Amino acid sequence: MQTAVSKYRTTQPRSVIYVLLAATCLSLSGCGTVKDMFSSWSFGADKDEAFEQADTLAAKGMEDYKIANYSDALKSFQSIIDHHPFSPQALLAELKAADCQYYSGKYAEAKELYKIFEERHPTNEAVPYVMFQIGMCDLSRSSRIDRDPTGARDAVQSFSQLLRVHPDSPYASEAKARIQEGKEFIASHEYFVAVFYVRTSKYEQAQHRLKYLIATHPDAAVIPKAKELLTKLEAGKPPKWGIEKWLPDWQLPDWGWWKKGKDVVEETGKEAEKSAQ
User: Could you say which residues form the signal peptide (predicted)?
Assistant: First the structure.
């Protein structure tokens, strides 16, 4: 079954993003270009030795990164950041350290590093990519409709910020698709809560939730189901069986979860908090 992150995925080939990233990495790591950018870096007789050490670490880090050995790659990049912060390779190391965290599934850590990069290098050509990745870190926190939708809301804001600041970036098209994905997740979460209220015979609360959903997300894919369910509730004919068929086609929780009788919002918030730690 598809997850929230995959259901509304854009049709744009992922290879396009990888090509763009590769180009960015080359522009950051190319020895000639980067040396020119940091031509003022000098520490006397130790300069050549320090440069060689940083260059060796960068090469090792990129080699590990390309084979998805993110743990070892991160160690190399972090060593550059810690011991050679003014070297030509430091800029590349900052960016790839964030990427290592992201592809290791450590989205909170990755987001923090991406934001640091953006703050330190606001005019760097990699900033649109960094802003896109911040949005992806947010979106990756939303994987099931029974979870806290804060990640999806943050993602919508992050991708919208990218479009405002860099409307013509290579990531604009993908960002628009991700905004739609985030909005669909939020709408489906609202609908899930309404169905939960129906399941627990809280019909008035369910109607309020459905009306709010229809008013705030009128174009969401789940709206036809929401309207049909609302009509039944207003007619005093709530569904009594087959409640599963009323749920949207997202990754769902274990059905035994329904029997615990816990408040859906409180419970999902706790689960999301634990998953982010």
Answer: none
Q: What is the pLDDT of residue 109?
A: 97
Helix axes 127-139, 90-103, angle to 10 degrees: 20
Kindly give the parts of the chain with pLDDT less than 70.
Answer: 1-50, 241-277
Q: Where are the alpha helices (DSSP H) in the chain?
A: 4-7, 14-29, 31-37, 47-66, 70-83, 90-103, 107-120, 127-139, 150-165, 172-199, 203-216, 223-234, 264-276
How many structural domains does the chain have? 2
Range of the domain at 51: 27-112
| 263 within some domain | yes
Q: What b/e readout covers 221-258, taking b as 16+ CB neighbours within 10 angstroms? A: bbbebbeebbeebeeeebeeeeeeebbbebbebeeeeb
Shared-domain flag, residues 82 and 165:
no
Residue 15 burial (10 A CB sphere; 0-12, 13-18, 19+): exposed
Predicted confidence at residue 156, as pLDDT, reads 96
Query: Each residue of 41-72: pLDDT tens digit?
Result: 444 446 666 678 889 999 999 999 999 999 99
Query: Is residue 169 domain-shared with residue 256, that is, in the same domain?
Result: yes
Q: Judge whether 189 and 212 are in contact, CB under 8 Å.
A: no
- Read off the tokens for 172: 């604009």
Instruction: Retrieve residue 38's tokens.
Output: 């940091």
